[in-house]
Amino acid sequence: ANVSGHWNKRSRYDATLTEAGPPARYQLNTERKYIDGMNKKVRRWTYGRRDKNKQNKVILMVGETGTGKTTMINTMINYLLGVKFEDEEFYQITEEEKHEDQTKSQTSEITVYEVFVEENPTSLTIIDTPGYADTEGYEKDREISEYLIRLFSDEDGIYYIDAVCFVMKATQNRISGKELYIFHSVLSLFDIENNIVFVLTQSDGGPPRDALSAIKKAEIPCRKDEDNEPVYFLFNNRQKEKRTKRYKRVLKSAWEMGDESMNELFTPLDEKNRKSLKLTLNVLKERRRLEACVSNLMEQITEKELKTEELNQIQEVVRKNRDKIQKDENFEFIIKRVFKEKVLIENEWWWNSNATCCSTCEENCHLEGCWWATDPSKCGVMENNKCTVCSGKCPPSEHVKENKKYVKKTKDVTMTFYALKAMLHIFERPQNSFDKNCYMKESENETEIEEKLISDLEKIANEKFNLLHEAYMTIINLCEIALKADSAFTLRHLDFLIPRLKKEGKDEWMKNLEDLRKAGEEQNNKGALDHLMRFTGLKN
């Protein structure tokens, strides 16, 4: 059944004429506001009087720049309004935003379009995700996920989805790595395989063999029909083209094909296929916390490795100066020492511009995507009035949230032998008990300082192993609770962990992570993964 219903053309919509046509083009007058307040990244445009009693359909639109996604949104709106070809009208809810470089996306925010028509018992909500050109880069793509998380978490946001429409050209014979990456980035937020359908644009009405072949080759999860084929709908995207007598028949045929496809698209959108986002949001919050834990653990492991290098340098200095040490002579030497410094967060996207850091542990507890909370106590890594990330599991009062983070640096430092003893907590002995072997262990032929260095290195090695174990278990837990185990975040950190686990001889752990990486690469598709690697600097 047609979800829209029809009414007399003389029914006036609240719209402004923008082009005489035919067809006459109108811009719907909408009430506009930002859902996320000052951030102004998630906007809502509402046409008509909002009515929560109406049956509402929620559709998420995904597609790369240039596929015709914007035209499809307006086509859906005209279908809901009941506009027919004979009406010689076409209504737009979107606005064309001019850009100097037409290869770049014209949409930089998530836009939620809502349409309420008094004569129609059904309302429509369309979530328009930004589609970026290849030149925009990996970090720009991450905005989509951040915006959607914000949309789903807001009390005035979206709580369910009826369908995800992947928009692509009917003549497209391959799906680019960029498209796959965008698709997987969005789908990593949901568990809605059966709600994914394909909207094929610029179709001539014939079988879309090229597009179907590309979809199958890319192994994109989606709804299947009775023949186990991907569910798709054909559109021509010529609804607003100027009509002349010569081409009127062709344009009418294209319009009718779109009407038929739209009816097929809307008919199965009943509530039994609806996906609630409440569980999705809970999973996303836990995933965000675990990701913060993993990132912090990686930083701690790196710090242990740098400290090990520092102590190895000191060991070499001690070995070369044994004779001076036995005589308790003071001498100078230069080593690279590790230290932490708090610096401004620069050249980051807005969602990474603030961090929650522990002033006591001097650690970054929530570095990536820490933008929801207004103060540390509201940060997602806090539970039961303590931090779940930093080494000391300190309370929120010992944390700060600001546009600064801790970084590890090394610098050449001139030290003296006496300063080294103090650093290692080896203190002067009473003068009357001193002899040339007071720092020598006769049985092992090692200086007391060397013994202390060995002990410290063993302690750091044990601490590093414990951190590796914790990181491994956190990655496993992350994959168990994640909606998609092949998330870009997880794949990004496996290359860090796997060689270190191999060095520790943890073959079983290493194999488990290698299996995860292999599965992730297969699911995420090599093209999508290459796109990720290219923009994160993980691959030359």
Automatic annotation (TrEMBL):
List the SMART domains hit by this protein, alphabetically. AAA
Entry keywords, A to Z: GTP-binding, Nucleotide-binding
Please name the SUPFAM superfamilies in this protein's record.
Answer: P-loop containing nucleoside triphosphate hydrolases
**UniProt signal peptide:** none
Question: Which ranges carry the AAA+ ATPase domain?
Answer: 55-230
Protein origin, superkingdom: Eukaryota
Which GO-annotated molecular functions does the record name? GTP binding
Indicate what this protein is called per its UniProt record: AAA+ ATPase domain-containing protein
Native species = Sinocyclocheilus anshuiensis
Q: What is the lineage of its organism?
A: Eukaryota, Metazoa, Chordata, Craniata, Vertebrata
